[in-house]
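#dry-run=false #mode=assembly
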Amino acid sequence: MRKTEPDYRDNSEGKAINEQEAIRRMQLSDDPSAQYYAAWWLGRNRSQNPEAIQLLRHALHQRRPKDLSAEVEENAVARNAARALGKLGQVAKESIPDLVEILHDDDYGLREAASRSLGQLQATAAIIPILQRLSSGPGIAGAREPGTPRLKEPCDAMLEALGDIGQASTDVISIIKLYVNHERTVVHSSACRALLQLTGDANWGEELVRLLKHDQLQVRRAALMDLGATGWRQALEAISETLAENSLKLIAIKGLSEKSKSEEIDIPLLDAMDSLL
Amino acid sequence: MDSQELLTIQNLEIQSLVAAVHAAKTADDLLTTTENLAASAHPDGAQCLLEILGFNNPGAAVAAVDGLVAIGQPVVVKLLESLDNSNYTARSWAVRALAGIGDPRGLSVLEHALAQDIGPSVRRAAACGLGNLILSTETELELSQCKRCLTALINASRDSEWVVRYAVTVGLEKRLKQDVSNKDWVIRSQNVLCALAGEEEDEKIVRQRARLALMRLDFS
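#status=ok
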């Protein structure tokens, strides 16, 4: 079933576009803003078209300096292509080697986008390269990059990827544990999320539930998304009571339902959803 | 104390609660003072609660919507008037308040919001509201209102956002739990719930909610 899509508007003309048009725009290599939108569109609509996948893979290697006047981020097309590939599932598996390669790119944002997508694609080939980037620990990989608010590595994205890929080897666990007490709460939260996913140990879940009561809204939001990703069902009540937007709580609870293998109808969970609408 | 004195005292209380909102200097203060005013559920607080919807403070806006819903019918006219001269965010909160109150005078606004609004959270609230709407007691009017609610919900069952389709299942369940005299609409609604419960629906949570609705309505 293809749904009506009132939101997918082309920002320039106000018209909805279709897959063929997105593919056409993806080929306009002298018009990065058209490509940027097309890459987003293909990911958002989970295109399964082989031509689209080839174009997105190709775009991963497209480099362009930050254009300050246009307020476009560095390598914007490559980043969006990386994000899109992560959303496409099975058909995008052939892009894994390209995504792994850009884990070593100089561009932090590109490493971040590639990490998240490799997590979504559950790419075991990404484990070793990610461990390499993180192995120096919070003192180096997790230290602040001078002159920016960033860390040296996109630690939260890389930790989340390790959790999503789902291979709980001793190496993976011990490297993630290096980051459990990171001073940045988002990194701490991502490490707890990954450890909960990989070990199922409730202590990590309880730590995430504690973060739902954090003073800062931003931390509470991140913890909501992290708990949703783990599917830790015991968090249902705490999620419902968190001081944050209902939209995010609904997404988190949906995550709990999706991660459950059971097809049984979970009535308390659906009741919690209903009361947040 | 006679009733006149009691009214005066209540009035002074509301005035001081309103003054506290206006004096709030931080986001936290605004939230607390809004919650206090909302808890009074008094129509004299309505104007202030409506203004809070436009303050761009989501926490306070949620509390203000709760307060407006608690006041209920007396605030419907003011809410409908506010739709014309406020910004998008304030309007979207007003739609939620109308959805919560369930007064049939909000029907057109909810229909329009569910079909047209760009914000999924607004369409979601409108779908619930169309399920909650308390229909007229006049048979003729009730029939036409019921048909409009069901039609709007059925049309939104192919919305691109899962949360809206989820809310449509909830809205349809609520509508069909009440007696719907036209069997044709019951069947059409039932078909929509069956489609949302089946494999052509991508999202597990929507399928589950639609299955629950069918079970509760004893359609399965």
